[in-house]
Amino acid sequence: xxxxxxxxxxxxxxxxxxxxxxxxxxxxxxxxxxxxxxxxxxxxxxxxxxxxxxxxxxxxxxxxxxxxxxxxxxxxxxxxxxxxxxxxxxxxxxxxxxxxxxxxxxxxxxxxxxxxxxxxxxxxxxxxxxxxxxxxxxxxxxxxxxxxxxxxxxxxxxxxxxxxxxxxxxxxxxxxxxxxxxxxxxxxxxxxxxxxxxxxxxxxxxxxxxxxxxxxxxxxxxxxxxxxxxxxxxxxxxxxxxxxxxxxxxxxxxxxxxxxxxxxxxxxxxxxxxxxxxxxxxxxxxxxxxxxxxxxxxxxxxxxxxxxxxxxxxxxxxxxxxxxxxxxxxxxxxxxxxxxxxxxxxxxxxxxxxxxxxxxxxxxxxxxxxxxxxxxxxxxxxxxxxxxxxxxxxxxxxxxxxxxxxxxxxxxxxxxxxxxxxxxxxxxxxxxxxxxxxxxxxxxxxxxxxxxxxxxxxxxxxxxxxxxxxxxxxxxxxxxxxxxxxxxxxxxxxxxxxxx
Length: 500
Ligand code: TXE
Fold this sequence. Notes:
The protein is α/β, with parallel strands linked by helices. Helices cover 39% and strands 21% of the residues. The strands form seven sheets. A seven-stranded mixed beta sheet has the order 15-18-19-14-13-21-22, with helices on both faces. Strands 10-9-8-11-12-24 form a six-stranded mixed beta sheet, with helices on both faces. The chain has a three-stranded mixed beta sheet with strand order 1-5-4, covered by helices on one side. The protein is globular, with a radius of gyration of 24 Å.
């Protein structure tokens, strides 16, 4: 890669990766290989082993042994924090390499990938403090004969299944918090974006994480993923992905060992724009909310709900923004919207664009496949005349497709916003504090933005209401998710006898 130019090139040959168990990278050997082609260029960029069920068992056994002998959970918070801080520093050192492979496998713009990697280092730095400050509670009000302590203990071996839309960011919204709690990990990245998870495993070993605490198995969801969710030696499973697979995770936990679950699933997130908003800001934010990561975010603002009096004007403003957005080669620093990550996702998005028109919605702009000579690109699409019953208004498309629905009152805006099975995120744009607070309180969503969108940081938890998931990641809540609570009752002095 030529780092001096403003446009990097894809590699001349794909990089070979091993999977990672017990502190070591294990080469593919005679295992099958998954060769990943970059969605922006169509050239092979990585070669990843397809692990076997025996590899999965070995990874879980390594994580189990590392947890059970307390080589990590038995360290004090200062020692765990030191490893996490060092990992943050190493991520910063290898930031360019991580961003490059993130862009190659995912198709996101390199400038965005770089910013995400910086955010990931920050996650480790923040979580290092939590390794030291995690604490329980005490009860000194139980009478002179009893003292109560509530301790937090790490849950144990955590299975971590991640998707392809933010392979490194979603990983780093979880790994440092899981490690801060004292748990050990078996991660299963998406088969199309495994490279940066494998790089993180190397970094953690170099940072001093004891062997066996971070293991990575690569392969398909239906074999390795399914094996992980059913594994009886896994105590907790954190899954981020589709609602359909989320359901399988719940079923598998019920059928096997009732492992604790964290689920971050789909979204159909509203962007509510009132006539009194700064419309210029709102138009920019709405375009960003659906264009960022080609709309392949669980928190993409895919439903624009706009006050009727400004609806036409605002649609034109968003259309003007879409016309200026730079869609193109993910390795070009100027690109704002890159390639669609998988062929399957490209087909899904295009079929929704057809379906929307067949259902009677009006395609105002975009929605066409862009010919960049190679790779797969879609111009951000804007749909008007959308009704609440249409598939494009109800189902997660996971692409750059924005629907517009007008409203006449605060109540109607809230009703439309909540008319979904999901509850992941929402934004409101208004300069009126009463409207902002009423909507914030009444719209069901785990993340809420007022006069902004997609903002965040390691302090603030992530997760959804309704069918968007269970539990929270990141922030102090993120560490607490990976703990069990134990109530300790301590008798003081001589026991009052039960039998005299
Ligand atoms: O997700 P999957 P896909 C949504 C989005 C997208 C759709 C399909 O709407 O169009 O899901 O994407 C692993 N047991 N989101 O098919 O299949 C899989 O290998 C255990 C929303 O890529 O859910 C990968 O590691 N694991 C979303 C992970 O699950 C299994 C992010 C996610 O893949 C498995 C991604 C199984 N049986 C997609 N089958 C978000 N909320 O951010 C697959 N996997």
